[in-house]
Design brief:
The chain is mainly α and 342 residues long. The protein has a domain of 120 residues. A two-stranded antiparallel sheet has the order 1-2.
């Protein structure tokens, strides 16, 4: 790189000299106008002067015409349209030198896009081949800041055009430029591979993210179904258990009434046959309700609770058990630098 810097310094000095000290094209001297010989003048013979007649009456002069005649002013000449193009070769060289110096300042400050703009304008004004070297150098340095392979391609094109224009000139050694082109070719190959790998990695990440999203949506649907079914079964199981307890209470109440009415196996039943039959039916129905309620509720309630628990487990697995906590930053070191993902 030191050789490149020394070469750039030498080229910069030569470029300034080429822009400022280039000789102007010789201008043709203005031709003087040929003087015409004075025309010969011949005096005409004098006419005899006639005698003036004696005045008769004084002539009256006509009154002057006082009517103002509006004279039309001549049209003002329009100034020539202003153009940004310099009018002479001196101005073009001065503008090119100014653009070159401004581009060099931007280059030293690391503002490579602005430096490239100034160098390109200087090239348009002067067509100096040394400016192609500066353009290649600026694009090459820009790649170090923004790793875009297009910067390397433009740098290579500038160096290649510089080599073509300088080839065959006196004291030109293409060795250093050819080394630069070889290094740029290697960097282009690596940059393209890195870009392809980065795109492939991004595609894999997108595919993984899409699979993750579909899986989460499917798990959410399953969790929703589990929760809805579990809540329904828990509700039905609770109601059937309540029905079983109600049937048990009905059976116990009718049994107490029947026991009190009969008073014992050898006592007389004080209730009528209809009342006795009604209490006996109530006793039987209460037993049936209690039996069916306890059986059905004992089945539905555990199943509903199990489904609700499974739904919660799958939800935590799909969405993460620490979803309410703030996410930590994921720091990864890649070929492009350090990537921080939140």
């Amino acid at each position: 790189m030191s050789a490149v810097c020394s070469l750039r310094s030498t080229l910069a000095i030569g470029l300034v000299g080429a822009l400022l000290l280039a000789p102007l094209p010789a201008a043709a001297a203005p031709h003087g106008k040929a003087k015409k010989p004075p025309a010969e003048t011949t005096a005409a013979p004098a006419e005899p002067v006639a005698e003036a007649a004696p005045p008769s009456e004084p002539a009256t002069a006509a009154p002057p015409d006082t009517t103002d005649v509006a004279e039309t002013p001549p049209p003002a000449e329009e100034p020539p349209p202003a153009t940004d193009e310099p009018a002479s070769d001196d101005e073009r060289r001065a503008r090119a030198a100014k653009e070159f110096f401004e581009g060099s300042q931007k280059y030293e400050l690391g503002q490579y896009p602005l430096a490239i703009e100034h160098f390109e304008r200087a090239w348009e004004l002067s067509q100096e081949p040394l400016l192609l070297f500066n353009l290649g150098q600026a694009n090459w340095k820009w790649f170090e800041v923004d790793p875009d392979p297009e910067h390397l391609r433009r740098a290579r094109q500038s160096f290649d055009n510089y080599d073509k224009r300088m080839r065959g000139t006196k004291d030109y050694d293409p060795t250093e430029v050819h080394r630069i082109l070889e290094r740029i070719d290697e960097q282009i190959t690596k940059a393209v591979e890195t870009a392809d790998q980065r795109r492939e990695r991004e595609l894999r990440a997108l595919e993984e993210s899409e699979r993750r999203r579909l899986w989460v949506e499917r798990e959410r649907r399953i969790v929703t179904n589990f929760n809805a079914t579990g809540i329904t079964l828990i509700t039905l199981g609770s109601l059937t258990l309540a029905m079983g307890f109600a049937g048990l209470l009905t059976r116990v109440a009718n049994k107490i009434v029947l026991d009190n009415a009969s008073g014992g196996p050898r006592t007389v039943n004080l209730q009528s046959a209809e009342e006795d039959a009604k209490h006996r039916n109530g006793f039987l129905v209460g037993g049936q309700l209690a039996f069916s309620g306890f059986i059905i509720g004992g089945i539905l309630l555990p199943v509903g609770i199990t489904l609700k628990v499974l739904g919660g487990v799958r939800e935590r697995r799909a969405l993460g058990s620490k979803r309410d906590k703030p996410k930590k930053a994921d720091v990864a070191v890649t070929g492009d630098g350090i990537r921080v993902r939140f």
